[in-house]
Amino acid sequence: MRHFDFSPLYRSTVGFDRLFNMLDTANADTPSYPPYNIERTGENTYRITMAVAGFSDADLSVEAKEHVLTIKGDKQDDEQNREVLYRGIASRAFERRFQIAEYVRVEGALLENGLLHIDLVRELPETMKPRKIEIGNGSPKQIETKAH
Length: 148
Hints:
Family: Belongs to the small heat shock protein (HSP20) family.
Largest sheet: 4 strands, antiparallel
Keywords: Stress response
CATH architecture of the largest domain: Sandwich
Shape: elongated
Radius of gyration: 25 Å
Protein name: Molecular chaperone IbpA
Helix content: 10-25%
Domain SHSP: 27-138
Pfam family, one: HSP20
Number of domains: 2
């Protein structure tokens, strides 16, 4: 993958640090474990689905802080009395971070059939929502002035 140098843009912009940091992070090599999907489930709702086979809800943690959603998995070692001849199901610890937009909040998380589902919803404040401006259909009103 190509590497882009954003340093010239740092010299000529103010207040875009977070954007450039996100671009640098997206440009970096990202781990592929565990696999995940991001889907849009409605106009303002999203779902992240992560394959976490072998992990229980006690082994997983989900935290949202300052526009970053962090999902961690740390499997408790229960193989002390077992001899594994072949390991095809990965159970190594992981940490996956997602940048979430402003006004997006985590609504809930559900572990079902080896898949962790995290539901997100975007809630724009009333001042940010589009509003319709009525257009008058008569002649413009004149302002009357009174002479003293």
